[in-house]
């Protein structure tokens, strides 16, 4: 019995891990409690840690400091790996406009926070914590605390950022939802019309792949091999099969084009005008069943020896009677050009003969079990590079000290880049969605549990001695930017459903996304959220450090 008592009252590593596990368990359960479709989510771990620390839990601060930083690195690294493949794609077409909207919201919140410090006398550490909590952005809190430690701040200053974060967080979750409701009420928005407008806009999306039928009328193309056609229109058209005299043929590389041939394939809507001028009549094709000797199959690339090779290097069309028509990577469809690389975890859509597809399937792998094998070495390569990048000082005019991306921004930036690239040399950075989610959840739970335990001892005292004003400051930062920017956009007729997704993403607020998704059964909200989230996350992390340095 004495051993158990000592375990709960000591300050050793075992005691610290005991309380850390207890906080994580209670916090996750607390976060699952739903009130009017709103949940605290992972923030329940923070409030659980604050409560356990308030009760007088004895902890080893050195152990918690290490676990906190490592948890933060795991969290931001897993985010970067996930969003990396679509990060730069998000800046195409409408994605650029949505990211500019998100940047405006982020910068307006930053300006308001700095104004509270400059003209309201709110200490820099406090207002930075409030800013992080008001936008429910945990990595930015970690970055701010790291910046404080780097400037030699005392432990009390570091802890006070957590208390500002915790006091601003609850309304940070609810404020964005309230903003969506206010905009809907003020502008008398009819959801049915918004859904129709969004569906109509999908027809004009230029980056979406589309099945096409090209009737060849250009005399200069007749008599040419399909292999030559593929090279001439490499980035405009992926040919799958030919319709000739009422029957379908596979578009093998040696097949010669004849008068009246119809090429079935895949292109982008923005390329159709070019195809019409160069080849002939182009019509959008509906999905058709592929029969006879041909079939269509989606094959998962799990052969690590082929990962990183180009379509030309794979030589599927040269060696088999089959054609790759699409590559699906991280939910994004890619038109397969000769120089397009195939990465581990890609799904390739192939049209070909039944027998050939059996061989292609074996060659590419198509084994979910293979992807489940842990790929840990590249993870630590990425973290190693991230820590180095995060430690590089960046001097900005007007700041008293150089800024750094730190242990939050460095691994996040590196993970985004390698997630986009897919590999460095022979290292592929593929991570299954399940493994990525586990790494992310473990990282954020460890970070928030440590933050709560390190700061909870003074939480109630801070709240009673003026902390309620911090809640007010946080509410202003939460409400004003999305309400102002959102109202301006709505005045110009911006689609309400897409606006809700942008607002939730700009405020990095998953509960707000859940609320927005429940408004209407379309993908507008989730798509807009995913478009702006990567850049927003990076800016939040970086600007939190800038605010600390500006207010020292």
Number of helices: 22
Derived structural class: alpha+beta
How is the biggest beta sheet arranged? 5 strands, antiparallel
Estimate percent helicity: 55-70%
The low-confidence parts are none
Shape: elongated
The average pLDDT score comes to 81
Per-chain topology:
Elements: H1 2-9, H2 13-31, E1 34-35, E2 38-39, H3 43-54, H4 61-87, H5 94-120, H6 124-134, H7 138-150, H8 155-186, H9 191-202, E3 209-216, H10 226-232, E4 238-244, E5 247-250, E6 262-268, H11 272-278, E7 280-284, E8 294-300, E9 309-310, H12 311-314, H13 316-319, E10 322-329, E11 332-334, E12 341-342, E13 347-353, H14 354-364, H15 368-371, H16 376-390, H17 406-421, E14 423-424, E15 427-428, H18 433-455, H19 459-491, H20 496-506, H21 510-519, H22 524-550
Antiparallel strand pairs: 1-2, 3-6, 3-7, 4-5, 4-6, 8-13, 9-12, 10-11, 10-13, 14-15
Overview of the molecule:
The structure is a single chain. Helix content is about 60%, strand content about 10%. It is of the alpha+beta class and about 550 residues long. The protein has a domain at about 1-200 and about 380-550. Strand 10 and strand 11 form a beta hairpin. Helix 4 packs antiparallel against helix 18, helix 6 (about 125-135) packs across helix 19 (about 460-490) and helix 20 packs parallel to helix 22 (about 525-550). The longest helix has about 35 residues, at about 460-490. The model has no long low-confidence stretch (mean pLDDT about 80).
């Amino acid at each position: 019995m004495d051993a158990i008592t000592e375990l709960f009252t000591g300050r050793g590593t075992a005691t610290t891990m005991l309380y850390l596990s207890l906080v994580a368990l209670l916090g996750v359960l607390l976060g699952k409690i739903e009130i009017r479709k709103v949940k605290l989510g992972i923030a329940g771990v923070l409030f659980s840690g604050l409560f356990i620390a308030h009760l007088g839990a004895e902890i080893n601060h050195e152990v918690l400091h290490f676990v906190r930083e490592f948890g933060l690195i795991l969290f931001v690294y897993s985010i970067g790996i996930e969003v990396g493949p679509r990060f730069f794609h998000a800046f195409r077409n409408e994605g650029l406009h949505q990211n500019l909207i998100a940047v405006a919201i982020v910068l307006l919140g930053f300006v308001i926070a700095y104004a509270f410090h400059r003209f309201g006398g709110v200490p820099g550490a406090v207002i930075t914590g409030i800013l992080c909590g008001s936008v429910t952005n945990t990595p930015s809190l970690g970055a701010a605390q790291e910046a404080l430690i780097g400037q030699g701040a005392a432990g009390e200053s570091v802890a006070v950022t957590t208390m500002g974060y915790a006091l601003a967080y609850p309304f940070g979750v609810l404020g964005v939802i309230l903003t969506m409701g206010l905009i809907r009420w003020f502008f008398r928005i009819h959801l049915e019309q918004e859904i129709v407008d969004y569906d109509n806009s999908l027809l004009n999306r230029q980056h979406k792949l589309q099945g096409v039928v090209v009737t060849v009328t250009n005399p200069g193309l007749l008599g040419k091999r399909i292999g030559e056609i593929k090279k001439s229109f490499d980035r405009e058209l992926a040919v799958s099969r030919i319709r000739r005299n009422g029957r379908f043929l596979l578009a093998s590389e040696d097949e010669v084009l004849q008068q009246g041939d119809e090429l079935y394939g895949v292109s982008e809507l923005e390329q159709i005008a070019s195809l019409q001028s160069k080849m002939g009549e182009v019509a959008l094709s509906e999905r058709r069943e592929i029969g006879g000797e041909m079939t269509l199959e989606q094959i998962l690339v799990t052969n690590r020896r082929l990962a990183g090779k180009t379509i030309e290097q794979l030589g599927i069309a040269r060696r088999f009677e089959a054609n790759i028509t699409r590559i699906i990577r991280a939910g994004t469809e890619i038109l397969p050009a000769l120089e397009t690389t195939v990465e581990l975890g890609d799904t390739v859509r192939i049209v070909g003969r039944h027998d050939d597809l059996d061989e292609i399937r074996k060659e590419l792998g198509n084994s979910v079990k293979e992807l489940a094998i842990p790929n840990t070495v590249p993870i630590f390569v990425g973290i190693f590079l991230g820590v180095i990048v995060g430690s590089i000082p960046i001097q900005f005019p007007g700041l008293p000290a150089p800024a750094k991306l730190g242990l939050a921004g460095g691994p996040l930036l590196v993970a985004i880049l390698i997630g986009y690239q897919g590999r460095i040399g022979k290292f592929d950075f593929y991570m299954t969605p399940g493994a990525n989610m586990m790494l992310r959840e473990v990282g954020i739970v460890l970070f928030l549990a440590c933050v709560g335990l390190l700061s909870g001892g003074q939480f109630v005292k801070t709240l009673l001695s003026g902390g309620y004003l911090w809640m007010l400051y946080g509410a202003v930062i939460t409400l004003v930017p999305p309400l102002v920017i959102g109202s301006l956009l709505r005045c110009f007729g911006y689609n309400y459903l897409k606006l809700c997704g942008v607002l939730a993403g700009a405020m990095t607020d998953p509960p707000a996304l859940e609320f927005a998704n429940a408004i209407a059964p379309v993908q507008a909200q989730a798509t807009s959220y995913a478009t702006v989230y990567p850049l927003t996350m990076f800016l939040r992390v970086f600007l939190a450090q800038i605010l600390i340095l500006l207010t020292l």
